[in-house]
Amino acid sequence: MILLRIISSLILVSGLLLAAFGAIVLSSLERDMRLMEAMQKEGLAQGIDTGKFRTIVIRNAVGYIVVGLLAAISGIGLLFRRNWARRLWIGLAVSLVGLLMYQTGRAIWLSGIDWGALLAQTTIIGVIAILAWYVGRRRIAALMRDAASQ
C-alpha cells in the first residue's frame, strides 16, 4: 500500500510539474518571439520561420499541459485506488512511448541517419514499453487489490 501511494504521488507531482512547464513556456512565448526576431535582424537563425516557430512552441506547450493534467488526474485516482486511474495511466504511458517512437523515427528520417540504428532503437524502446505495461498492469492491480482489502 505504501508503494502504491509513493508511485501515485510521483505520478501526481510529475503531472503537475509538466503542466506547470507548459504554462511557463506559453507565458514566455512573446519574449521568445521578440528574441527570435532580434536574432534574425542580427543575421542569426535565418533558416527559422517565425510563424512555424510560434506554432511549434504553442503546440508543444499545450501538449505538455494536457499530458501533465492527465497524469495529475491519474495520480489522484491512483491515490484513491480507482480502477479507471490505473487504465488511464497505462494508456497515457503507452501513448507517450508511441509518440516518442514516432518523433524519434521522424527526426531520424529527416536527418538521414542509418535505418539499422533506427530499427534497433525503436525495437528496444517498444519491447521495454510492452514489458513495462505487461508487468506493471498486473503489479499495480495486485497492489490496488491488496490496498482495498486492508
What labels describe this entry?
150 residues, mainly alpha, flat
Structural commentary:
Helices cover 89% and strands 0% of the residues. It is flat, with a radius of gyration of 20 Å. The chain has helices spanning 2-27, 29-41, 50-79, 83-111, 115-149. It is built from 5 helices and no strands.
In short:
The chain is mainly α. 89% of the residues lie in helices and 0% in strands.
Any chance you could write out the topology, listing elements then pairs?
Elements: H1 2-27, H2 29-41, H3 50-79, H4 83-111, H5 115-149
Q: What number of domains?
A: 1
Give the beta-strand count. Answer: 0
Whole-number radius of gyration? 20 Å
- Portion of residues in beta strands equals under 5%
Helix-strand topology string: HHHHH
User: Which regions are unreliable across 5 or more consecutive residues at pLDDT < 50?
Assistant: none
Helix fraction by DSSP (H/I, runs of at least 4): over 70%
The N- to C-terminal Cα distance equals 9 Å
The total of helices stands at 5
Average pLDDT for all residues: 80
Structural class: mainly alpha
The biggest beta sheet reads: none
Shape, per Cα inertia axes: flat
